[in-house]
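note to self — DONT lose this again. spent like an hour looking for the file last time. sequence + predicted structure for the chain T wanted, 433 res
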Amino acid sequence: MPTPTSGIALSPTRWLMWAVPAFLFLIGFFHRAAPGVIARDLMQAFGVTGTTVGLVAATYFYPYAALMVPAGLLIDAYGARRVLTLGGAVMGVGALVMGGAAGTAALFTGRFLVGLGASATFVGTLKIAAAWFPATQFGLLAALTATVGIAGALTSTLPLAALVGLVGWRGALAGVGVATLGGAALCLLLVRDRPAGVPAPAGADGLRAVLAGAGRVLRNPHTWPPFLAFFCLYSVLANQMQWVVSYLRDVHGLGLREAASYATAPSLALLIGAPLTGLASDRWLGRRKTPYAALTGAQCLLWLVFVATLGALPLAALYLLLFAMGLAGAGFVLVWPMGREVNPPHLDGVAVAVVNAGGFLGAALTQGPIGAVLDARWAGAWADGARRYPLEAYRDAFAICATFTAAAALLSMLMRETRGRNIYTVLRTAHDA
């Protein structure tokens, strides 16, 4: 029997339905890494330290992590289109507030609004993908969506540095805010929650039913290994994006644009590695757990090499190492399918939201403390009105990241292999037996 989406497998309409929410997700991902490029600008403009900049960056993740599951509930109950439109509008307003901030209070407020609006973008994009594409392609679509986010991270490195050079950090954020509002308008006008004539998934009977069913996701012990894995992996990625530009400037003496250029290495690698990982998992291997374990194990080893050689490698070798770290880091794209495939199919939005919340909770809880680690090791040096941190400070900070990669690799032992299919009924039957 064909699936509801099998008849549109060759239709370009499905790609349009996915592309508009994916654009909003790209902008949301841009904001995650942007403070790393403008860190010195923020220190100069507001007279703050690395701890404060770390807290500004982390403020995005507080509402993002807290509202990830509620956003999934609302998306499952009322549809992705409405929630994505509202989220995009809030995110755009937040960027405008940041760009016009006269003090740190407005800066934190704008950053909070950006995170608030962005909380719906990833889950909403995957909800649209699940409705418009065959189920056998979900792993690939999850990886492609993550790849779009990585492209957003790339735009917040060298392109953002170039834009800041032209219009300043305030003008750059204001321009992004206007573009975000335009994306929200397109979502309202063009996106539909599912193809015409396709009914809502069985069990999706409104917010009350979704709230009742969400308890199943939260009580399901198989939900939590992917949640914890993403907690570790995104803590690593977020802190690398936040501090690698500053590291390259402080330790290697690079200018902003050159440092931002080298900082693109992990993201460029993820642009290749993320879709290949999804494709390999869906089509070639038919596995989730095995490639995840292999990639996170490799990532842990590469992080150990990075910390051990910090400040000693030539820039060309450092770029290659960062690129390899990005390739291995692509294993994180498999946590969403693994979390989705051990939970009820009609609660896929909630399941993905719970797993995704783990990553942003990790970023929210670690960026400020890692900034404090840098401040604790600061030797009193200044550069252009901002603190310049020594090699030892970055070694301590990045060693924490290496520890998180080891924990993510070990968590693979607690995960269930789904082979790319929903096994919730199998797991429940085994539990009840």
